[in-house]
């Protein structure tokens, strides 16, 4: 499957590997801001194992879990600085960490 990873019109940041575990986590602060600039765009790809994501709340696991399921190979693009700061991730299956590759633009 072909994937297009795009960068918009800002200053690109360094791609960062983010491991998502059993606890809800935000993107690292070094990705959401650079030299005082807020990230205005991020590309997030799922490298292995499924993850859940939610904006403005913590995603959860198990029966009645909350959040969008992201599968290996999925790519999410966010164009909203507030959403980038408020997005949270957790692994979909307890004990099976998910790895994300994240590139931001400022």
Model description:
By secondary structure, the protein is mainly beta. The protein has two helices and ten strands; from the N terminus they run ββαββββββαββ. The strands form three sheets. The protein has a four-stranded antiparallel β-sheet. A hairpin with a 2-residue loop joins strand 3 and strand 4. The longest helix is centred in the last third of the chain and has 6 residues. The termini are far apart.
Index terms:
106 residues; mainly beta; four-stranded antiparallel beta sheet; 2 helices; 9% helix; 42% strand
Brief digest:
The protein is mostly beta strands and 106 residues long.
The strand line-up of the biggest sheet is 1-10-5-8
Summed over residues and divided by their number, the pLDDT gives a mean of 92
The level of helicity is: under 10%
* Number of β-strand runs: 10
Shape: globular
For the sheet with most strands, the description reads:
4 strands, antiparallel
Taking the alpha carbons of the first and last residues, their distance comes to 28 Å
Low-confidence stretches: none
Strand content: 35-45%
Question: Which structural class do you get from the secondary structure elements?
Answer: mainly beta
| Rg calc | 13 Å
SSE run:
EEHEEEEEEHEE
Number of helices: 2
Task: Detail the topology: elements first, then pairings.
Blueprint: E1 16-20, E2 25-26, H1 29-32, E3 33-34, E4 37-38, E5 41-48, E6 51-55, E7 68-70, E8 75-78, H2 81-86, E9 87-91, E10 98-105
Antiparallel strand pairs: 1-10, 2-9, 3-4, 5-8, 5-10, 6-7, 6-9
